[in-house]
Each structure stands twice: as structure tokens, then as C-alpha cells.
Amino acid sequence: MQFLSAASAWFAVALPIIALMYILKKKYTDTVVPSHMLWNRLLREQEANRPWQKLRSRWLLLLQLLAALIAVLALMQPVRWGAASPDGHAVLFIDRSGSMSASRGDEGPERLTRLEHGLRQAEAWLAEQPSGRPISLVVSGAEPEVLASRESDHRRLAEILGGIVPIYGRSDNSAALSFADSLHGGEDGQTIVLTDGEWIDAEEASELLLNAQTERWHAGPSEVADSPFENGSILSFGLRESGSSPGHQIATVTVRNDSEHSRIYNVTIRAFVLDEGEVYRTEVDMETDALSWQSEETDVLPPADYYTAELRGEPDFIAADNMAFQFPQGSQTGKALLVTSGNMFLEKALALAGVQIVKSSPDQPPPTGEIARDLDWVLVDGQLEQLKESAGWADWLGGMPVWNMDHPVADGVGTVVPTSTEAKALEHPVTAYITLQDTHIGRLYEPGGQDAAWGDPVLTYGGYPAIIAGTEQGRPRLRFTFNLQDTDLPLRPEFPILIVQAAEWMNGSSLPQLGSGVAGSSMPVALQAETETARWAKLEGPELISREQETGSSAFEVERNDSQIRVPDVPGLYRLEERDATGQLIASRLLAVSPDMEELKAVRATSGEQLAFHSVQQDDEDNQTVNAGQKQNNGMQQSLIHWAAVLLLGLIMLEWEVYRRGHIG
User: Fold this and answer.
1) What's the predicted TM-score (pTM) here?
2) Is residue 61 pLDDT above 80, yes or no?
3) Of 509, 535, 568, at which residue does a domain stop?
4) What distance in Å separates the CA atoms of residue 238 and residue 317, rounded to the nearest whole number?
5) Residues 269-296: pLDDT tens digits?
6) d(C-alpha 379, C-alpha 339), whole Å
7) Strands, E, within 481-569: which ranges?
8) For residues 158 and 135, is the Cβ–Cβ distance under 8 A?
């Protein structure tokens, strides 16, 4: 038997107080005597009533002392060990934080990770449980996740266990532990925590007071306190543009050696072009001192859509930190094809805006080959309809973002002459800071029907549309309904600003890459207005365990919450694909997902000794790390307070009977 509130023993001071009340009590009896000779006996009785006389046998005193003793024992919350019910509810809590992906301590041929070892332990334990026993399954993460609640179909539970993979973001293990304990609903139960004990919130978790019996099972082949830590990681991977070769990159790689001796790591750097694959590869050997880091700079790398750095070296306990990804800095204005018969003001303004111009004329064929692949958008200065009459130009323009400038002619179809100079600009990226006040526009073209159904007027002049902006099939479109040579706009200070903003709008189809994000976190991403569905497609990634590859290699839906999207849980290079209602791809951007390095730092600890669980149903002696099967049938502690209450009630009834019959002394 144990007492959960030993401090309540202080109430036992009431017992000597009760006895003292009997000691100090003076008792006198009225007696009729026939002779004073009996007074001597009375005097002897008075002498016997002195405070320090030995207490006589008094039933009432003994019953009151016994009742007080039972009340004190009840306040100390007595419990006893009883056999655990094999059919009771059990909660299996599996730690799947980044440290569980390490293979530290496993020197076997399979080199299983800690999570794989733990799942095998869980499967073996599950196979030994009585049929129909309700079992809940909880896994850790940024938020605790219930994979099964009081599930009695053990085959179903085994299938769920087979699909559990590590997450490489931040894990709130203490919240998951508290949540797992709450699933018992105040009833007697058993919680099994399968973990390596290396939690970054171990101190917080150790302060929790759990209600259910909680056991910690070590996830791994053995204790690894004496196992040396061997791991290399890529701390950083950066790019800078080569000063001598525009578009070419120079990479800088920083490698950390967490081993206790110097190591030589081989780092392979590759360049990739989307839809073409690898276009370049180089290798760097980096000798790194023990518990130190080393940086190296590569030769000039050719232009590419993205670059990867991969570290190789054995032994290596963590695979998730062996790859890094980087993207070249892109231009916000891009490279454009200018189709014009000659417009000096427009050419100068585009050059000032930073646009790389490739000039062409309406009587030339559309560009082909490498020139066409490098173009981001096209600006047609008049004669767009004539170009579309050419099959070659029509097909080429159909796949490009187009900015066209109308050249309305006097008395032509659709030509209008504004009767006022009032300009009204809507809030739009193209017309920000633009008013066109006191600007003269002689003629405009008024589109009709479906001529400009892809967009809306963002600036009107004299009541007529002057600038129309929108998207068509996910690509930006822009239309100036006036000829620059029919206006004095090129002489206005607003003209270069308008051209810069228009160029940035047109380059919206060449969206910048998403950059990098930590696995499992959230990041703000503005999706396209026409986006109906968004999916992640994994392009590259470290060689992780087979269950992760099976789960993470295919495309999956993007989790969205307002303007935030959830970063994938497994490190690698992902492409965010946005599609419209017809299923057509309208935008795609790349995201490099890296693990939470704080979680992986926990693997460098020699053990998880600082993690301890405290339960109201068990003492510290029973809170030791165990392997599966060693404590599967531990006893459950049962409260004895209800028995104390029954005994106390019986004593009260007996005391009343003694008092009623007069047996008080």
C-alpha cells in the first residue's frame, strides 16, 4: 500500500489531543454515604483523577482514536497495487519528431531508424494484446494528432502503424503527451510513450502531472550513451551571380562535422533546368575538423532553374540534413520581345525599367530555339491583329503573355476621340502613382464584344478605357488602347513609372520562386486569382526511409488557411502547381523544404535522461525507461479511500451504540 499525500500525516496530531482531553477530564460522582468513614475512599478516588494517571480501558476513547486514525489515513490518499486489466483502455503515443529519424545506435545491416525500431516494438506489443481491447493511437507534431480512438480492430491499428513517418518540423511533444493522457477521460488506463527521450521541450513535459499510468519505452535497438556520434550536415548553401559571366552562378557550401574526429566529406553540386533535368555536375571534397565547420566556393556554374548540394560520407546518422537547394535571383521585369516598326521613347523606357529587349518587326517570323525559350513576355506595338493572321505568329503568341498597344487611325473602326481630358485610375499595380492629369490623348480604340473579355479597365480617359489589365489562361495580359505617338505621355514624368509598373505586371507569369521553408511550418503565399486547386509535387530530396519515400514522393494537396499555406513535412524540393477550373496549369513555383535544425540537434545528446513522467498513479521508481514487453502487465494502483469511508461509518455507528448503553468508561 502507498500514500499519495504523505504530508497529510500531520493531521495525526489530533490523536494525542483527543487522549489529552480524556487525561485532563475530572470526573465526580454524587454519592449518598451513611458514614464519613467512606470519605477516605472518595479522597483516594480524587487522588486517582490526577492528570498523569494511566488511562483506564475506555471503549469510547479507543473508538474515537481509531476513527481519527482512519480519517488521517484517508487524507493521506491510500492506494494499493492491483492487477492491470488486460481489457482496459490503452493509449499508444508515438514520438515522430526529427530525432526519431536518426539511425544512431543501430550498427546492424538494415540501419533502421529509431522510429522504425519503435514501430516494430509497437507492432509486437499490439499482436500480444487481447482481442477487442480498445486502443488509441496518438502521434506528435506541431499539434497532436489522433490516428485512432478506442479502436478495437487491431488489424486496422497495425495498418495505421505502418503508415507513420517522421516529421522534420517543430514538434510540441509536451502538448501531445498531455492530450494523450486526457483521452482516458478520468478512467483508469495505460499510456505508453514510445520515444527516444530527446525532446527539446523535455523540461516542460517533465513538469506535467499525468492522471493515467504512463510508461516510457525506449525507441531503438539499445541505449546509445556509449555510442560515438557520427554525422555531417550542410549548414548553408548560397549562390551569387558571377561578375564575369551574366546569368552564371558561384555557389558557397558550408559543411559541419559533428564527429569527434576530422572527416573528409564529398559534396556534389548539380544544376537543373526544369523539363530538361540535370545539365551540370561538379564535386568538392571538404576536409573538416572535429566538431567544426568548413566553407568552400565552387567554380562558375551554368544558368539553371535550381541547384542542389548533396553531402556524402559514412557513417552518417541523419539523412535529412544531407541536401540543400538554392535558386538564382530572378529579374522582376524579365526578358521581352518588342515587336515594333520603331518607337524610340518606348525602347528607352523599357531599357530604363531593366527589361532585356529582343527587337523584332511585324514582317519577321516569330523567334525560335533558345531565343524563344529565354523570353518571358512580348510587347506588340501595333499590328497585333495582322500578326495573328499569320499561323506562325498566332501559335507562338497563344502561349505567351502579351502586352499590345493599339494604333487607332482617324475614322477607323472602333476609334473614338475623347471629349474631355478627365482620367480615372483604379487601384491596380499597373496604375499605382499614375494620374495622367493634363495628359493629352488624341485617339483611343474602344474594344467591343469579346475583344477584351480577359480583363477590366484600370484607367479610363474621357470616359473610355485607356489601359486594360487582366489574365488569360493564367498569363498576364495588358492593353494600351492608344498610340504613344498620338499623345504627349512620353514627355510626362509619369511615363517611365508607368512602363516599369507595366513591365513588372507582365513578368508576373515568371513568378519568383517561393524560396525556402521549414518542414511543417506555415508561410504566406499569394495564389493566383484563377487558382482552383493547388498541389505539391516533390522533385528532389534526401534518401530517407522507405515509408517516407512511399508517402512523400507523390503529389498531394496544399493545405491552405487564408493567405497561409502549410509547408510539406518531409525535406526536399517541391513544386507548387496551381491549376484553374479546367485543370490547366497556370503557375508553378519551387520551394526548398529543410528540417528544423533545433529538432535534429537533440540527436547529439547522449541520452534522454532529463525526460521523466510524473503520474498520480505511480511513483518515480516505476518511471524508468523500459523496452517493449518488459512491463506489459504492470499493476494498476487503486484508491482505498472508499474502504476508509466504510470503516469510518461503521465506527461512528459502534460509538453511538457504546454511548447509548453507557459503556463510556
Assistant:
1) 0.60
2) no
3) 509
4) 25
5) 999 988 788 999 999 999 999 889 999 9
6) 6
7) 515-518, 522-524, 533-540, 556-557, 560-561, 564-566
8) no
